[in-house]
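Task card 7
Instruction: Convert sequence to structure tokens.
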Amino acid sequence: MGKGRVMAIDFGMRHIGVALSDELRIIASGFETVNWNGEDDSWAVNRIAEIVKEKNVAEILLGKPSKCNGEESESERKAKLFGEKVEEATGLKPILKDERYTTVIAAQMLHANNMKAKKQKKVIDQMAAEVILREYLEQQRG
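Output:
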């Protein structure tokens, strides 16, 4: 296993969920929701780059919103383009991870913890990123 934290990004057209591992890559935790206008992603890319630097991130996962039939969706194309910009800003090439159903899983987790719907909206994207990260860390441990 590598050194430094792993970051997971749940890319969305308004909200980008960010989750981070601890330095030992054992625990996945929601970190931040980066909001943007859906058009100019430069602020979001810069914020991701700041987090990478501040938190000693060594690896980035990017949720890939694949269609069930395997075709590339518009969302997937935009996520990949965002990933290229993140790579340019950080020097780290994001690893694309299937993110299908992560938001559903995150919503179920929040509901199970009796979180009110209004509060869920603020953290759902972070939780989806946390699901992506947790699955990856478990795979790495084998």
